[in-house]
């Protein structure tokens, strides 16, 4: 992303994004080998350390629940930025989604609350779109303004609607709504119980796979299933349809897109509106699934972490999903015996740093290899001299992971070329 606003550059010779992806991407076989290697490594660390919570069904289920709002926020950012509009206002749109879901959900039913959470998010997206697309306001300034407006508006409305009357009698107060009924959960009968039985034996790799799969098929919220479908649908729509090609062209070179007959304003507005709706859906998840009520401040910066996950994923749904899963997993550690589990992860980090050091030395990157090896040694000493990681550090784990991931992945990132740049209708004529 870029924090500065400049005029859109003149048309340049188009490059085949698909060809570039093929040159830098990995084949399906390579991806499967990496996944298999990661599973073997995690299973070995679990056996050595005895930390069975490392990949248990409960840990995976908690990680998935925490990853969904982050993933939806990141997907919202992907839609907006693929069309060339930086969306720092995701946090505010999520806040609007939590309020809309909590406000309407307790008065009617959670399904209408879910729709209202999406609608409130779309409203925040349209405010951002009008400011940035129509009036040419700096995208960062507009996004920060949306965050501040959303926070102030929801605080005022919560005091107005939840502090007295029927809402107060039902359990509401100026900082939260009355409780909302639960949305249904989905569990695959038989499969979940069988996987739980296999996991309890703590067999090498087999129990690890059972725990991971069990966490993915047990007590799934309908919003979680919807989020998975939205990720798949986004990939198909943006990378496999003419609509997606036109939308992405607005983020790469809107002048060239306009010269080919694309209504750039329409596509940008559509993308930012969808972005707001997805962020609102992430907020609705927090209000309807995580806490069953609207709570002031319950987004907890997930909009910003979603942006970090989007950047980690290189503005693509697959990488974004992995980033959201990583952040969700690190956040779940503090909920399930976090100190011991994070201590076990230190050994995993030692192995990864050692592998990185060997790779850098093989590539003749001497200093990077030496630094990675030194860090591996320091983390190993930390692991050997302690039995548990302090709780304060466990609570900071999601944010530490965010910084580490962004710093390590910065060299391979490629954002849309016209992301955050000012565009004026008629420049391509």
- Percent strand equals under 5%
**Mean pLDDT reading:** 86
Q: Largest sheet, if any?
A: 2 strands, antiparallel
In one word, what is the shape? globular
Q: Termini separation (Å)?
A: 27 Å
Question: How many H/I helical runs?
Answer: 19
Strand segment tally:
2
Order of helices and strands: HHHHHHHEHHEHHHHHHHHHH
Helix amount, in percent?
A: over 70%
Radius of gyration computed on alpha carbons: 23 Å
Helix/strand/pairing category? mainly alpha
- Which runs of at least 5 residues are low in confidence (pLDDT < 50)? 1-6, 9-24
Strand order of the largest sheet: 1-2
From the structure above, extract its key features.
429 residues; mainly alpha; two-stranded antiparallel sheet; 19 helices; 2 strands; disordered N terminus
Provide an overview of this structure.
By secondary structure, this protein is mainly α. 70% of the residues lie in helices and 1% in strands. The protein has a two-stranded antiparallel ribbon with strand order 1-2.
Protein topology:
Blueprint lengths: L16 H8 L3 H22 L7 H26 L7 H18 L2 H25 L4 H24 L2 H5 L15 E2 L4 H9 L6 H12 L2 E2 H19 L1 H11 L1 H6 L4 H27 L11 H11 L4 H16 L5 H25 L3 H20 L5 H5 L1 H13 L20
Antiparallel strand pairs: 1-2
Helix pairs in contact: 2-16, 3-9, 3-10, 3-13, 3-14, 3-15, 4-5, 4-6, 4-13, 4-14, 5-6, 5-13, 8-9, 10-11, 14-15, 14-19, 15-19, 16-17
Provide a quick synopsis of the model.
It contains 19 helices and 2 strands.
């Amino acid at each position: 992303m870029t924090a500065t606003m400049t005029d859109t550059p003149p048309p340049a010779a188009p490059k085949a994004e698909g060809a570039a992806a093929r040159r830098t991407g990995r084949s399906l076989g390579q991806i499967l080998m990496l996944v298999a290697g990661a599973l073997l490594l995690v299973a070995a660390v679990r056996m050595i350390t005895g930390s069975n919570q490392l990949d248990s069904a409960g840990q995976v289920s908690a990680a998935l629940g925490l990853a969904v709002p982050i993933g939806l926020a990141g997907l919202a950012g992907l839609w907006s930025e693929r069309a060339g509009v930086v969306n720092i206002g995701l946090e505010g749109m999520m806040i609007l989604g939590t309020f809309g879901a909590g406000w309407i959900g307790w008065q009617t039913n959670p399904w209408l609350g879910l729709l209202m959470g999406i609608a409130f998010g779309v409203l925040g997206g349209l405010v951002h779109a009008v400011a940035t697309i129509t009036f040419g306001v700096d995208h960062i300034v507009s996004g920060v303004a949306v965050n501040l407006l959303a926070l102030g508006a929801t605080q005022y409305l919560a005091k107005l609607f939840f502090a007295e009357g029927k809402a107060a009698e039902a359990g509401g107060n100026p900082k939260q709504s009355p409780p909302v009924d639960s949305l249904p959960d989905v569990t695959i009968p038989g499969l979940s119980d069988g996987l739980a039985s296999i996991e309890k034996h703590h067999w090498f790799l087999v129990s690890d796979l059972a725990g991971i799969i069990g966490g993915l098929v047990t007590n799934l919220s309908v919003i979680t299933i919807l989020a998975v479908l939205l990720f798949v649908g986004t990939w198909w729509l943006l990378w496999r349809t003419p609509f997606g090609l036109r939308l992405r062209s607005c983020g790469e070179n809107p002048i060239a897109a306009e010269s080919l007959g694309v209504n750039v304003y329409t596509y940008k507005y559509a993308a930012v509106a969808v972005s707001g709706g997805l962020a609102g859906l992430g907020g609705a998840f927090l209000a309807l699934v995580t806490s069953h009520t609207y709570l002031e401040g319950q987004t907890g910066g997930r909009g910003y972490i979603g942006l970090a996950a989007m950047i980690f994923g290189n503005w693509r749904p697959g990488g974004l999903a992995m980033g959201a899963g990583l952040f969700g997993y690190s956040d779940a550690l503090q909920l399930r015996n976090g100190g011991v589990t994070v201590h076990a992860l230190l050994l995993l980090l030692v192995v990864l740093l050692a592998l990185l050091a060997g790779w850098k030395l093989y590539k003749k990157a001497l200093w990077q290899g030496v630094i990675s090896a030194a860090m591996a040694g320091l983390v190993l000493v930390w692991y050997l001299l302690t039995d548990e990681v302090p709780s304060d550090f466990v609570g900071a784990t999601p944010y530490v992971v965010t910084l580490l991931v962004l710093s390590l992945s910065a060299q391979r990132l490629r954002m849309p070329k016209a992301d955050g740049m000012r565009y004026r209708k008629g420049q391509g004529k």
